[in-house]
Design goal:
By secondary structure, this protein is mainly alpha-helical. Helix content is 53%, strand content 10%. It has two domains: 61 residues, no CATH class; 95 residues, no CATH class. A three-stranded antiparallel β-sheet has the order 3-4-5, with no helix packed on it. A two-stranded antiparallel sheet has the order 1-2. Helix 2 packs antiparallel against helix 3 and helix 2 crosses helix 5. The longest helix has 43 residues. The radius of gyration is 27 Å and the shape is elongated. The termini are far apart.
């Protein structure tokens, strides 16, 4: 009896099975990649929630709405792969309940003449390295806050104790 034929046949069957599994994995990966891309596009244009429509040539076209400041902060946080997104949002709301990037506070500060600026109330005395342009810019101030938190300086915010 020729056992090499059986051995070769079994090896061929194993190889065929591996090829089929490999093709299935490739197809699954491509499908997941495409779904991820579609999800990211939909999320970026905010078509899942708060969409409005307009008629163009008799066809309804979904229009993206503007993101809220909270959504912008979350988006920046995700782009930076920031681990504590919810903490960042709680901090922002605690410091500036309207999330208004143009807001400033000049009352009860130390020193008394200093000013807290922007969504994260960045003090112009203690953080003179942060320009007014950055402090009042949502993206720039969020990136700065993320950097400070990642560096272990979240204790600098009075609200840190309140939101832990």
């Amino acid at each position: 009896m020729n056992f090499s034929y059986i051995k070769n046949k079994k090896q061929k069957e194993k190889i065929d099975k591996i090829k089929k599994v490999g093709k299935a994995i490739v197809i699954t990966c491509v499908a997941l990649y495409l779904l991820t891309c579609i999800f990211m596009v939909v999320r970026e244009f905010r078509l899942l929630e708060g969409q409005t429509t307009s008629k163009k040539g008799g066809v309804s076209v979904a229009m993206a709405r503007d993101l809220t400041n909270e959504e912008k902060i979350r988006q920046i946080s995700r782009q930076e792969c920031f681990e504590w997104e919810d903490y960042l949002i709680r901090l922002a709301y605690c410091e500036n309940d309207t999330l208004n990037p143009e807001r400033k506070n000049d009352k009860d500060n130390h020193p008394f003449w200093s000013i807290d600026r922007g969504v994260f109330m960045i003090n112009d005395y203690w953080h003179a390295e942060v320009s007014d342009e950055c402090a009042y810019d949502l993206r720039c101030s969020t990136l700065w806050a993320i950097k400070r938190i990642n560096s272990g300086y979240q204790h600098e915010w009075v609200c840190n104790k309140l939101i832990k």
